[in-house]
Amino acid sequence: MTISTTETNAPPRGMLRSVGAVFAGIVAIFVLSLGTDQVLHVMKVYPPWTEPMFDPRLNLLALSYRIVYGVVGGYITARLAPRYPMRHAIVLGAIGLALSTAGAIAAIPMNLGPSWYPILLALSSMPCAWLGGVLQRRWHTQ
Fold it and tell me: What domain range includes position 63?
């Protein structure tokens, strides 16, 4: 008679790798975005952190690099995914959509800048993550 001693409460290794892949994408987006913001504040391209930013050109600049970083985050997530890379990238996009929507709901009444900026940031979350997944699939399945 053989008794199995496997732990039934431990999460499967694949689940931990999946969570880690999505987490890595989120961290990459946050670090790259806030790092670039800080550099632009130090260089006095952006006003100080405590002041609102209403110049549409500066908001377009911020949106443009955040879009690029969203694609990079989707790519990283898909690349690190144990399997189903596009599914992981889409999960990242959904998390980004939820966080960005919450940020927009909080920021718009505070009048920190134009309302279109946080709205477009939220709307770009899913397409950016998807594109990152597509790029990962193209570059790593050949």
Answer: 15-140
Contact 84, 139 (CB under 8 A): no
Task: Please tell me whether the overall predicted TM-score, pTM, comes out greater than 0.85 for this model.
Answer: yes
**What 8-state DSSP symbol labels residue 5?**
-
CA-to-CA distance for 130 and 25, rounded, in angstroms?
12
Size of the chain, expressed as the number of residues it contains = 142
Alpha-carbon torsion angle 100, 64, 116, 23, nearest 10: 0
pLDDT digits (tens, 9 = 90+) for 16-72: 999 999 999 999 999 999 999 999 999 999 999 999 999 999 999 999 999 999 999
Give CA–CA dist 84/24, Å, rounded.
16
CA nearest to 70, candidates 132, 6, 2, 141: 132
Under a CB-based contact definition with an 8 Å cutoff, are residues 96 and 33 in contact?
A: no
Number of separate domains in the chain: 1
> Does residue 86 fall inside a structural domain?
yes
